[in-house]
Design a protein that fits this description.
Pfam families: p450. The protein is α+β, with helices and mostly antiparallel strands. It has 16 helices and 10 strands. The structure holds protoporphyrin IX containing FE. Residues 104, 121-122, 133, 136, 140, 266-267, 270-271, 273-274, 277, 316, 321-322, 325-326, 384-386, 390, 392-394, 397-398 line the site of protoporphyrin IX containing FE (HEM).
């Protein structure tokens, strides 16, 4: 977006003093890094929940805004400038200004994702994005609420959730470990095809590569492992199992520069975030009075499951799985309070915008109605899927598959959270890995 602000000062955007800078590092920026940006560390997530780390981050951002107004503000670290956004208008400007002058392919993200998908859209130059982004949009059918593979996806979900519930009937409980096994099978079938259901090797390889990704440039790449992993994905594309996304990759026209196979690790990887969001949505659903009944009532009439979709969106608003939306500036940028040089990292801390109780009366309440209409640039930014040209192209696949899983779970059984949530005052951090539900047949 061209900058039209008149009479801008030429001074630099204000920098935080050493004490404020240390507070922001500790309370806002380090938390997501310690929890594991590329693959979560469950112990760190548990600790974050105990100290409600995300609520502390939001409070810190509110304090910065009361001291600095609409900002932005800068942190100056050795070799790196980081700008924190405090104002909704700036969030929309940055997201809409992707990939230039606000590039999603920021330095540390490239270091992390290059371990397993150096040719992915997210870490591409603006020229490479021209082919890679549309390729993702074509296969994921970004603009369609219901993907053309929805029937196959639904059948896979029914089978896998049935198997999960069969096990839960036996033990009487549904916990994260069982859910995660079901999820892995479901994702491999949807993305790679039936033959991948029990291909644990492909998931383990990706996991090992992602663990390296958590350390970005600090550990060397394991090219042999990456070649084996990407080679396996290529085999699934060659096999092109009908109804899988691999089949769509095989039959979608693409230039060599689009690197079709290297778009796939992002899908496999990002389905993890959906698993956490779905398990948290289940906690919301079974804790909120009347929510399960509302969901059950819509199932036969509305195959796009609007109330379940908004529950998933609420789960993502309350506990965003991408808490830091990151961009690097590719040119000098001007702001209301000064300029930032090219090469500055720009940070949108999503929990601040999602949970700012000074602006959003619903901040800490379960409020699916927030999502009942389309949201645009005039609205307060709720950005679990980012926004603008870099917005998640998989968002509709996420909402579809997540709401189908929830529909199967609450449609087939009565579930009771062992630790129900108070949906009028929700915690800033919720660890999905320790949620447990008792399961009963209706
Ligand atoms: C809860 C689940 C998910 C959430 C919250 C989510 C969120 C996001 C966000 C915030 C971004 C932008 C990242 C950035 O700007 O740096 C993104 C990018 C992306 N997501 Fe998702 N995602 C989810 C699941 C998925 C799934 C399941 C897929 C594919 C099946 C997917 C495909 C992608 C791709 C390909 C990109 C890169 C887009 C680009 O660079 O243009 N996501 N996602």
């Amino acid at each position: 977006m061209p900058d039209t602000t008149p009479n801008l000062p030429a001074a630099a955007v204000p920098s935080l003093g050493p004490v404020d800078q240390a507070r922001v590092l500790m309370r806002v920026l380090l938390g997501p890094v310690i929890k594991g940006p590329i693959v979560r560390r469950p112990k760190a997530v548990g600790l974050a929940e105990r100290i409600d780390a995300d609520a502390a981050g939001v409070a810190e951002m509110q304090r910065l805004r009361s001291r600095h107004g609409a900002g932005p503000v800068q942190l100056r670290l050795p070799g790196r400038r980081i700008a924190l956004l405090l104002d909704p208008e700036d969030v929309h400007r940055v997201l809409n200004g992707s990939p230039e002058p606000f590039s999603p392919a920021m330095l540390e993200k490239r270091g992390a994702l290059n371990h397993f998908e150096p040719g992915n859209a997210l870490v591409s130059s603006p020229r490479q994005r021209l082919s890679r982004r549309p390729f993702n949009e074509q296969v994921l059918e970004t603009e369609r609420p219901v993907h053309s593979h929805a029937e196959q996806m639904g059948a896979i979900i029914t089978e896998e959730v049935e198997a999960l519930l069969g096990h839960a009937d036996f033990t009487g409980t549904l916990d994260w470990d069982g859910f995660a096994v079901m999820w892995g099978r479901m994702v491999r079938r949807i993305v790679l095809g039936e033959g991948a259901r029990d291909d644990h090797q492909v998931t383990d390889d990706l996991r090992r590569l992602r663990e390296r990704g958590n350390f970005s440039y600090l550990v060397p790449q394991n090219r042999r492992l990456r070649d084996r992993f990407l080679g396996r994905l290529q085999e699934y594309v060659d096999h092109a199992e009908p109804g899988s996304l691999a089949e769509m990759v095989a039959r979608t026209e693409a230039s060599a520069e689009a690197e079709p196979v290297q778009q796939m690790p992002q899908w496999l990887f990002a389905f993890d975030a959906e698993a956490w969001a779905t398990f948290r949505a289940l906690s919301l659903l079974v804790s909120h009075p009347g929510a399960v009944e509302r969901a059950r009532a819509e199932m036969p009439q509305a195959p796009d499951l609007p109330s379940l979709r908004t529950t998933v969106l609420e789960s993502l608003r309350l506990w965003p799985t991408t808490p830091l939306i990151l961009r690097d500036t590719t040119a000098e940028t001007r702001w209301r309070n000064g300029v930032l040089p090219a090469g500055t990292a720009v940070v949108i801390f999503a929990p601040f915008f999602h949970r700012d109780d000074a602006t959003l009366p619903e901040a800490h309440r379960f409020s699916p109605d927030l999502w009942m209409r389309d949201r645009g640039d005039g609205d307060w930014p709720l950005v679990p899927f980012s926004g603008g040209p870099g917005m998640c192209p998989g968002r509709n696949v996420v909402l579809l598959t997540s709401s189908l899983v929830l529909a199967e779970l609450v449609g087939q059984r009565d579930l009771v959270a062992e630790q129900p949530l108070d949906t009028a005052v929700l915690p800033g951090t919720l660890n999905p890995f320790t949620s447990t539900f008792t399961v009963r047949r209706h």
